[in-house]
Amino acid sequence: MGVEGTTDENSNIPSNIDKRLQKQKEIDDWLPITSSRNAKWWYSAFHNVTAMVGAGVLSLPYAMANLGWGPGVVILLLSWVITLYTLWQMVEMHEMVPGKRFDRYHELGQQAFGEKLGLWIVVPQQLICEVGVDIVYMVTGGKSLQKVHNLVCKNNCKSIKTTYFIMIFASVHFVLSHLPNFNSISGVSLAAAVMSLSYSTIAWTASVHKGVQPEVEYGYKASSTSGTVFNFFTALGHVAFAYAGHNVVLEIQATIPSTPEKPSKGPMWKGVVVAYIVVALCYFPVALIGYYVFGNNVEDNILISLEKPTWLIVAANLFVVIHVIGSYQIYAMPVFDMIETVLVKKLHFRPTITLRFISRNIYVAFTMFVAITFPFFGGLLGFFGGFAFAPTTYFLPCIMWLAIYKPKKFSLSWCTNWICIILGLLLMILSPIGGLRNIMLQAKTYTFYS
Predict the structure, then answer these.
(1) What is the distance between the terminal CA atoms of the chain, rounded to a whole angstrom?
(2) The pLDDT value given to residue 80
(3) How many CA atoms does the CB half-sphere of 310 hold within 13 Å?
(4) Cα 93–20–109 angle (5° rounding)?
(5) How far apart are CA 410 and CA 188, in angstroms?
(6) Contact 330/51 with Cβ under 8 angstroms?
(7) Quick check: 61 pLDDT over 80?
(8) Is the pLDDT of residue 116 over 70?
């Protein structure tokens, strides 16, 4: 009897394991990152363009004004090369363990640093980045809508608070946030990518049309040395923010199908190269021509400096609105995935539409509230750019690469990674200082919910 009882217990073990695996598969099929794996390489291209070419491109002439010609051009080029290299590393590491895919940034962190430490290193930084971008894009969307209103309706129009425009912009996300996964927002992302190229082109072509301004100056604008130094630090943050697409790279690659014969890194890298060509076409003309035309008098959003022709600036601002709608969704999707993973796997909620509806609406409401309360666009770019994006974009992939592959000391790979780490650390330490100072200066004259 005893032997029969033991046999029955053992026969139950496989069925219990099967049930657990089945339940795990059902949850993975419901979560936004792993629910759909049929994306094409061009999905990768426009998702990456949407993630990277954000409103940050419009602040690049202002960043150039605070960096100066020499340092500005060097930092722009270096950032393009370094971030392309670290992006390549992440694409390579996605499937470095045969038969396993690291679908999320923190999963790669756990492979490099261990189960617990990997979570603590990656998740806080990734959340700061993604939530930070969504807050900044709430502000950008609201202010761009306000700019359209002010340009179109110049006479006999009642002034409307920025707060209300941010709420109008947020209302779109209370609808779009219920699209279940990355592939379902591919249409929104494609529109956003086209818009980013469109308003970048408008920004630099309108600058060329306007011509170099009379009495243009290219020296540093600040009257004191400390002001110049702090502005330089802030500009570093603006550049870091402009190149911040890495937080969603693995999550985008997770949507591409993969087999041992045809791994996902092939189509993903193809998409990344196309995206980076578009990034160069957007960033370098806007930054260099915008600074050349307006000098150190350029605004922190070049569209503000370009007052005429009115119809073109209205169009550009509308393109910005459409683009940041797509960008908001791209950055929100990994956050939704984290929230829903915790709710379903840790707190054991049932994976239902109601759960998704409530959790996503709370997130959109939270980002809207913070954006309404602290709409310091320029300062926010500088602060978040250095504090959050420098680690995840410039050097965290390099540290992971060193921890996992352990290249030989003083080899080309070892030296390259350490150079990226040192430059990224400098960026992370210096740029938030300038951004925080700008926020403090703007806060002096700011009244809440104005």
Answers:
(1) 80
(2) 92
(3) 8
(4) 20
(5) 45
(6) yes
(7) yes
(8) yes
User: Nearest to residue 88, comparing CAs of 400, 373, 358, 307?
Assistant: 400
CB neighbours of 174 closer than 8 A, spacing ≥ 6?
Answer: 361, 364
HSE-CB of 416 using CA atoms within 13 angstroms:
16
Task: Give the separation between CA 256 and CA 66, rounded to whole angstroms.
Answer: 41
Nearest to 169 by CA among 148, 151, 190: 148
| Integer Cα distance of 269 and 440 in angstroms | 41
- Better pLDDT: 445 or 38: 38
Instruction: Using the predicted structure, report yes or no on whether residue 378 has a pLDDT greater than 70.
Output: no
pLDDT at 159 over 60: yes
Cβ-based neighbour number of residue 443 at 10 Å: 11
pLDDT at 8 over 70: no
**How many percent of the chain have pLDDT more than 90?**
30
- Phi/psi for 434 (5° steps) reads -65, -40
246: amino acid identity, one letter: H
Q: Count CB atoms within 10 A of the CB of residue 171.
A: 11
In what helix (H) or strand (E) does residue 355 lie, and over which residues does it extend?
A: helix 353-373
Task: Write down the pLDDT at residue 93.
Answer: 92
CA 399 to chain CA mean position, Å: 20
Q: What's the rounded Cα separation, in Å, for the pair 422 and 137?
A: 29
Give the contacts of 112 (CB within 8 A, at least 6 positions apart): 118, 399, 400, 403, 404
Higher-pLDDT residue of 182 and 14 is: 182
Give the whole-angstrom CA distance, residue 69 versus residue 63.
10
Q: Is the pLDDT of residue 358 over 90?
A: yes
Alpha carbon distance 28, 213 (integer Å): 57
The structure tokens listed for 31 are: 């979560």
